[in-house]
Amino acid sequence: MDENINTFNLKILENTAAALRSNGFEAGVYKNGAEAACALLALAGTGKKIGLGGSATVQELGLPEKLTLAGNEIITHKPGMGGEERRSVWLAALSSDIYLASPQAVTLDGKIALVDGNGNRCAAVTWGPRKIILLAGINKLVKDQEEGLWRSRNKAAIANNIRLKKDNPCVKTGRCSDCSSAWRICNVVTLLWKKPSASDILVMLINEDLGY
Ligand code: SF4
User: What are the start-end ranges of the H helices in 61-116?
Assistant: First the structure.
């Protein structure tokens, strides 16, 4: 990466971390994904129940495998699970020791946006797990809430629809049409304006493009 861009990125990430802290969140800045993964593994230690929301960032960093190798139990739904089985996994994730997810957007003034199809991840990042850790690559940074909600549907959701091979109109057009598809993945928004008072939330801001 160009050294000037690198310096600029780190300043923006530090400013955003300060804004997140002023909204009650714990926040840290990491030079790259490898450094963030290392810090997360040290924080998790071993013997924990770790809930995972669907997250390309978590997968790109290889966290499920690394956390399992370190002796943690991963709680996440898998393709092919029936409705009742998924429900029991999502309920178990709500009472995990650590819950990992990646927001679709983090605003420069320290707010966080997540959009879900089912709402299990939107629920788990507000209350339940002992500790909630949100990982965000620099590509998730946006100016404000309005841009964050725009990004959630017009960038993140479309890329996720493509990844998940959903038969939704945005996959063909590259644009969100606010569809009424049965497979729509944009049904629920969680906006964390400030840290919910009974929750412990760490936001890891990473100087690398990660996920969608
Ligand atoms: S077209 Fe539907 S599924 Fe695609 S981004 Fe828009 S609301 Fe989400």
Answer: 63-69, 83-94
